[in-house]
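Below is how a single chain appears once it has passed through the pipeline. First comes the sequence as given, then the structure the pipeline wrote out for it. We keep one example in the README because the format questions we get most often are answered faster by looking than by reading.
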Amino acid sequence: MGFYSIYETSRKNPEAIRSTLLNTKNTRSAKIISGAIAILLMITLIIKFKSVPGGMILSGFFLGGMLIAVVLVGCLIVAYIIQLFFKSSVFLTNYFLTVILSFVALHYYLYSPTLTIVVPANYNGKVDLVLSNVDENILKLDSNGIGYINQWTFDHTYSKPVVVDDKGNKLDSVIVGFSPGTFWAQSKSCCIGGKQILSKSFSIKRHEPHNEFLTRNLLDNINKKVVSLVKPDEHPIIQTEP
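Resulting structure:
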């Protein structure tokens, strides 16, 4: 359509051209807003991946970057398919909306609660949070440094906890994680009725040097009434007998 045709259309039907301009403005605004939200979600994901545990040799940050790249490429394919079915839609808007939905799902999947754990005053040694059938997590530890968490908390917790003693003193300077990239160690202890006990652990190191992650006999110290037992799998079982 040439300039003269546009001029004639606007002169004869000013409402049509006004509507066209409004639609163009709304389309541009939708692309800008959806794009900004997608970028913001990606930045927050990148920050979150810094604290996500990695694999055997790759950091969580590196694996997270690969996952984001896969999501971005996958969303291109999905947006193209949407465009085939809804030809009047805008490709970039479809793409950004698909990315937003994917990143929101990733945020939900990667959510980790920050636990507040209370230990006995002057406690020194290993802390174990045992997988249990409790509704509410028991995070005030007993004299053996043992607490109890439910399945959801066990599955989603990877971030460093807040640890205080029963006098309210913060213990950030004396808690020791499993490794620089993974704070929580995971243990399998055998056995009750042929089934094993799962726990997440870290250490409180106040004084003498020792191996923070030596296994110990949980069977003699746990509350067997609340513990959730799982069937042994093909992975090696960490024995807790001294």
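The first helix runs from residue 3 to 12.

See the next section for the split statistics.
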